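Please check these two lines:
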Amino acid sequence: MTVQEFFNYVHDHPQLALYFYLGVPVFALIISWISEPQGYQEPWKYLYSVLIYAACIPGIFAVTLNIYFFFWERRSLMDSEILVQWMPVLSMIATLIIIRRYVSFEAIPGFDKLSGLMTMIAVLLTMMWILDRTHIYAFTYMPIWMVLVIVVGGILLIRWSLRGMMRA
């Protein structure tokens, strides 16, 4: 199944996407009401982790897809599909706001990995956009493994410096 086939499937069966994107924040709200005093304890924080991942993975994908469509393909905002491009983002934001109201993100296992993923995607998209806009193309006889080492080293350096900025 290609991404376009998945989008076509969601377009043909919108009720499944709506149930999911509306169900995750509603389920987070219900779980938050039930576990309000014990949200930091063992079974609840893992359930919060599952809810956060269920909301953030499609949301991060939709944000990345929107950035790609608007910056590289130059699509109009009016041509975007609500179920594929906006509902995952709204569901992610609503779920994070609901869970944040009841539990600190530091208590949720795996949230640091998810925020690191968001940071890495943002850094990579920014680097790709800068490279695309500046039209810097290098024709070189450098081996591909050397180029990969330079790119990975640059990403690690940016991530290390961002982590240092976040601590300060």
The mean pLDDT is 83. The two ends are 45 Å apart (CA to CA). DSSP finds six helices and no strands in the chain.
